[in-house]
Amino acid sequence: MVIVTLVSIVILTLKDTGQIAIAADIRGFRAVRKRTYYKDTRMTKVDYIALTLLIALLAIGIYISGLPGMGATPYNP
User: Which of 29, 33, 35, 46 has CB atoms 3.0–4.6 Å from 24's, for a disulfide?
Assistant: First the structure.
């Protein structure tokens, strides 16, 4: 069973390599030496505010889930 799965994965990978090569050729890879997609991004003030709010919301949710009757209730038919 494992061999059948591995063979199918290898076959599908080999089929995809042809499509990837064609797509790379169309996009012009290696046409220019300094081609890159790296973009340096930095966190802004809005990002820090959103992160702080999400952490606070998580902390509030954890606190509320610990209150009596607010946490997970076991299913007891």
Answer: 29
